[in-house]
Amino acid sequence: MNPSFIMIIITTALINNVVLSQFLGICSFLGVSRQIKTSASLGGAVIFVMTISSAVTSLLHTYILAPLHLDYLNTIVFILVIATLVQMVEMFLKKTSPAIYQALGIYLPLITTNCAVLGVALTNVQNGYGIAESITAGIGTAIGYTIAIVLLAGIRERIDEESIPAPFRGAPVVLLSAALMAIAFMGFGNLSL
Amino acid sequence: MNQYTERIFNGIIKENPAIILMLGMCPTLAVTTSAINGLGMGLSTLVVLIFSNLIISMMRNIIPDQVRLPAYIVIVASLVTVVDLGMQAYVPDLYRSLGIYIPLIVVNCIILGRAEAYANKVTPDLAVMDGVGMGFGFTIALTVIGLVREFLGASTVFGMALPQFCKPISIFVKAPGAFLVMAILVAVLNACNIKTAANKKVEGCDGCCTSCAKFCEDKTKEDTEA
User: Fold this and answer.
1) Which of A49, A115, A177, A183 to probe the B interface (max B CBs under 10 A)?
2) Which of A116, A154, B40, B198 sits at a 20 to 30 Å CA gap from B28?
3) pLDDT tens-digit profile, chain A (193 residues)
4) Is the distance from CB of B148 to CB of B171 less than 8 angstroms?
5) Predicted TM-score of the model (pTM)
6) Taking CB atoms and an 8 Å cutoff, what residues of chain B touch A173?
7) In angstroms, what separates the C-alpha of A1 from chain B's closest C-alpha?
8) Is B109:A27 a contact under the CB 8 Å cutoff?
C-alpha cells in the first residue's frame, strides 16, 4: 500500500478525528452510544455508507462538476446524492442480504442527516483529493467515528453503574467523558508523519 | 403578548434551539472558539432559517407530502449556497475561520426540524417570526458560549485583549473545551431544574435530532404497514 494512503487513514481516523476534533456527527455520537453492541453496528453502517458516498461524490465532482465549473453546486448536489444513496443502499440491502439489513437497517436513515458524511465529501473537495484518496479518506474518517463511538459506549456502560452527583447524571457526564476522550486524542496531534 | 412576540420569546428563551432543544450540536461545539465565530455562525444560520421558513411556509400547499423532505433539502441547500457565496465575497476572514461549517448548515437539525415541526403548518408571517426567534436564540446561545470559551481560553472578549489577572486556560479554545463548557452548562441547567432535551432517555432512532427522527418515524410506519 502506498505510504500516502496510510497517512491519510491515520490523519483522518486519529489526528483529525471526525467526532472528537471536528465535531461532526455529534448527534448520533451522543444519542446512540448507550451500548457497545448498538454503537458498533452504527459504526459499521457509517463505514459502509461513507465509503460509498465518498466514492460517488468524488466521481461526480471530478467528472461532472469540476469540468463544467459548477463547483458552487457542490453542497446541493452532494446532500441530494447522499440522501438518495442511503435510500438506495437500504433498499438494496433489504432485497439482497436481509442479514446485514437486520443488523444495520435501522441505523441507515440516521446517517442521511449525519453531517459527518457530507463533511467528508466537502473536505475531500477542499483538499483536492483524487478518487482513490477520497475513498481512503472516507474509510479513515468512518474508522475514526467507529473508534470514538465504541470507546464512548464502553465508558458509558461503566458509568451507568457508578453513583454520580444528580445534576451531572445523563448528558453532562457523557459530555465530560467525551471531553476527556478529546484530550486523549489531542495527543495524536503531536505525531510527526 | 401577541402571537408574534410569543414566537420570538419562545425561540430565544422557552425553546432555545441550542440550549433547551439541543439541536445543531455540531456548530454549537465546533465554531464557538471565539465570540465572533459564534456570532457569525449564528447570524448565517438565522438568515438561512428565516428564508427557509418563509419559502417552505409559502409552498406548504404545493409540495406533495411524499416528497416534502427532498424538497426541503433542496430549498435549504440553495439558501446555504447563497449565504456561502455571499460570505466568501463580503466577509472572507470570517468565512475562512468558519470553513466547512458554513456549507454544513444544510444538515443543521434546527433548519429541517423547524420546517417539519412548524413552518409547513402555519402562514408565512408566523413562520418568519418563528425563524427570527429560533435564529436569534441560536445566535445568542452561540455567542455566549463563544464568549465564555474565548474569555477562559484566550483572555480576550470579541478579539480585544483584557488586562490579564491569570494565565488563560488554553484548553477551553481547543476541542475538549467545547465538551467541557457544554457539560457544565447542561449540569447547571439540570441543577436549576430546567428541562432540556438532554434529559430525555435516548436510544436508537430517538437518539438523533428532529430531522433524522422524522426519517425514523416514517420508516417505523413503513415497517408496521409492511
Assistant:
1) A115
2) A154
3) 567 889 999 999 999 899 998 888 887 888 778 888 888 888 888 888 899 999 999 999 999 999 998 888 988 999 888 888 888 888 888 888 787 787 776 677 667 657 888 999 999 999 989 999 999 999 999 999 999 999 999 999 998 888 888 888 888 899 999 999 999 999 888 776 6
4) no
5) 0.87
6) 183
7) 30
8) yes
Interface with A, mutate which of B41, B104, B217 (most A CBs under 10 A): B104
The whole-angstrom separation of Cα B132 and Cα B138 is 10
CB contact under 8 A, B190 and A169: yes
Q: Where are the domains of chain B?
A: 3-194, 197-226
- Beta carbons of A34 and B219 less than 8 Å apart: no
Q: Cα separation of B163 and B151, whole Å? A: 11
- Cα angle, residue A100 at apex, residues A99 and A102 outer, rounded to 5°: 65
- Is there a contact between B201 and B184 (Cβ–Cβ < 8 Å)? no
Rg (alpha carbons) of chain A, rounded to whole number:
18
> Of A31, A124, A116, which Cα lies nearest the Cα of A82?
A116
Provide the number of CB pairs (under 8 Å) joining chain A to chain B: 164
3-state secondary structure chain B: CCHHHHHHHHHHHHCCCCCCCCCCHHHHHHCCCCHHHHHHHHHHHHHHHHHHHHHHHHCCCCCCHHHHHHHHHHHHHHHHHHHHHHHHHHCHHHHHHHHHHCHHHHHCHHHHHHHHHCHHHCCHHHHHHHHHHHHHHHHHHHHHHHHHHHHHHHCEECCEECCCCCCCCHHHHCHHHHHHHHHHHHHHHHHCCCCCHHHCCCCHHHHCCHHHHHHHHHHHHHHHHC
User: Residue A176: enclosing H or E segment and its boundaries?
Assistant: helix A171-186
Which residue of A26, A175, A182 is in closest CB contact with B186?
A175
Handedness of CA B94, A24, A49, A193 (dihedral sign): positive
